[in-house]
Amino acid sequence: MIAATPDALYTADYVLTQNASRDVICQGALAVAGDSILCIGHTDMLVALYPDVRRVDLGRAVIMPGLINAHTHISMSLLRGFSDDKALRDWLEKDIFPQEAKLTPELVELGALFSLAEMIRTGTTAFYDMYMFEDRVYHATDQLGLRAVLGESTTKFFPTLVAPNKDAYFDLVRRYGKEWADHPRIRQAVVPHAPYTTTSELLRECRDLADETGSLFGMHLAETPWETEQCIAEHGLRPVAYCAKLGLLRPDATFFHLVDVNEQDRRMLADGHCAGVHNAASNMKLASGVCPVSALRRAGVPMGLGTDGPASNNAQNMLREMYVASLLQKIHTLTPTAAPAQEILDLATLGGAAALHAPYIGSLEPGMKADFIALDLSFPNMQPVHHIVSQVVYAATGAEVCLSVVDGRELYRDGKFRTCDYSALLEEMQKALAWTRHS
Ligand SMILES: [Zn+2]
After folding, report:
1. Burial zone of 217 (CB within 10 Å; 0-12 exposed, 13-18 middle, 19+ buried)
2. Which helix or strand (DSSP H or E) is residue 333 part of?
3. For the whole model, what pTM was predicted?
4. Start and end residues for every CATH 3.20.20.140 domain found in the chain
5. Distance from the CA of 315 to the center of ligand 1, in angstroms?
6. What is the CATH number of domain 67-355?
7. 328 CA to centre of ligand 1 in angstroms
8. Which of 46, 182, 213, 335 has the largest count of CB atoms under 10 Å?
9. Which pLDDT tens digit goes with each residue over 252-290?
């Protein structure tokens, strides 16, 4: 139920709504009531309507929907810069997996807190995460106030760090599901790692577990041509067809990367009403290939945008990701009109909402959740403003973010984190550095 009177009125030079007609309101205002948006309009009109409501005037700024990071592993901030410039399999098997084998729940939580701070600081208000010791990510996310879909990931290589066998893993997922069932901002997903690190039986059982626990389902899929070759050799099918055979292509499923997908794969994903996520920078850095993101959208697959983990990106900054994603499609197709700014902004907002299966975020409209950010347009790189969407996608760096709000609660404003002691966090990270030393 939305209250009739707002708690606060946020005003700025621009309000970028991302509504169905992509309205941009000059001298606009956003009225927030509780955790939702009450109304949007011209500042003069809303100030006249609510003269006594607390006003936060952001002046030369743009208010816009919070960005949605639709695929990441936030705790991997611990491994940012630890291993770079390698191919995916070498990177994973020689550097990342051995280092992750030494993780502790405390380290996972510290890594998560760091990425959450980075996301708040650069305008991300919601994300889809999969990792190990994910209960620590639940706690960190609850504490810092973001919105998320979270999943304890697994492979077939039992004993894993968190579970001695498959049944113990399933019990863990059931336990998290119960513990966090009624959380207003966090939803659970069952997230096996990828086809090449699991078995058909494990994937079928993970799918059943998602149904049993009322969770979403997510997985890395078709990330590299190598994965396709391996899947054909082992199962006689391309990765998407293999998932279709296992009954994994369902409306609550989100598949990450989708680099090596042909026309038939795209049609199968669309027929299954699945969502996908494009990870431009990670795919470029690991030289995995280029996701045909526009072709997937044309086929009818809702696509979000994600950074992937900080070890393969190396940022959790969706403003930077949008810029990279647009340029990647242009150079890959040698078409300057490919992936225009508005399409890319759609990926990071409305597409992200589809990938998180959260239709109540992604645009600023009455009744939607009050998840929004503001960018300060007085930065030299943000002037002059010919087209505000162009400015956000091509010119912004993340440093311009001056406000991040989730569920009507301010998480960051004017240089200050409202939900975390960042100085203390910084100290903790210095102590944790010893963990990554090779000795
Ligand atoms: Zn990933």
Report:
1. buried
2. helix 318-333
3. 0.97
4. 67-355
5. 13
6. 3.20.20.140
7. 19
8. 46
9. 999 999 999 999 999 999 999 999 999 999 999 999 999
